[in-house]
Design a protein that fits this description.
By secondary structure, this protein is an alpha/beta fold. Helix content is about 40%, strand content about 15%. It has an 8-stranded parallel beta barrel with strand order 1-2-3-4-5-6-7-8, surrounded by 7 helices. The termini are far apart.
């Protein structure tokens, strides 16, 4: 079974942590990834070479690897250059995710160069798209996986309703492996994404974003605590 067949019709869990948070530790990320595997995930989306290596040592699921690295003066930060591709490949990820928008990248990097490096390394490429045009361009480059990851996170798409089901439906028409990522907070939304044409879904914050979810609960309950103004 190839990696795309293994992911088809199922759940991929994004296990990431903000830099400096309590979860930002390879062993912690690996434990969360193993818990996702035990719960029925068929794939994992992992950020940074150190975290990828730790996860591969404990889990036997396909890994979508990425490196988030900001470069001054440039907007793309998800695997923005071939340098990050090399780090992901060395760490052992089967799939390399990259920013597929047309925005300028550092060191003269282009989408074409990034995809070529991924394929030269015998890895599967995943395009994190914001628009259908991003997906169309990536598809023309031979990218195997087209995802809605960046819809809502670029100037052009900010404020978009998530999950981006209409975008999923358009991308699915390209007959490439389509992933819906972003805004899936409950199983029903994931089912809607599959019905819209997604081959798989990625869920992150709703499952592994502990700090964010605790913050939501804490904020929601605060008005009922000491000094709160709401009626009981």
């Amino acid at each position: 079974m190839n990696v795309l067949d293994a992911l088809r019709g199922a759940l991929i869990v994004s296990v990431q942590a903000k830099p400096g948070s309590a979860l930002d530790d390879p062993d912690v990320i690996a434990a969360l990834a193993l818990a996702a595997q035990e719960g029925g995930a068929v794939g994992l989306r992992i950020q940074s070479a150190a975290h990828i290596r730790a996860v591969k040592a404990r889990c036997n699921l396909p890994v979508i690897g990425l490196v988030k690295r900001a470069y001054d003066g440039f907007e793309p930060y998800i695997t923005p250059t071939p340098r990050e591709v090399a780090e992901i490949v060395e760490a052992g990820a089967e799939i390399v995710a990259f920013d597929a928008t047309p925005r300028e990248r550092p060191a003269g990097a282009t989408r074409e160069r990034i995809v070529a490096e991924i394929h030269r390394s015998a890895r599967t490429a995943m395009a994190d798209c914001a628009t259908f045009e991003d997906a169309l361009a990536a598809h023309a480059l031979g990218v195997e996986i087209l995802a809605t990851t960046l819809c809502g996170y670029t100037g052009e798409t900010r404020g978009s309703t998530l999950p981006a089901l209409a975008l999923v439906a358009r991308i699915a028409e390209l007959e490439a492996f389509t992933i819906c990522e972003g805004g899936i907070a409950e199983p029903e939304a994931g089912r809607s994404a599959l019905l819209a044409g997604a081959d798989a879904i990625v869920v992150g914050t709703a499952l592994t974003g502990i700090s964010a979810r605790v913050g939501e609960f804490a904020a929601g309950l605060k008005k009922y605590g000491p000094g709160g103004t709401s009626d009981r």
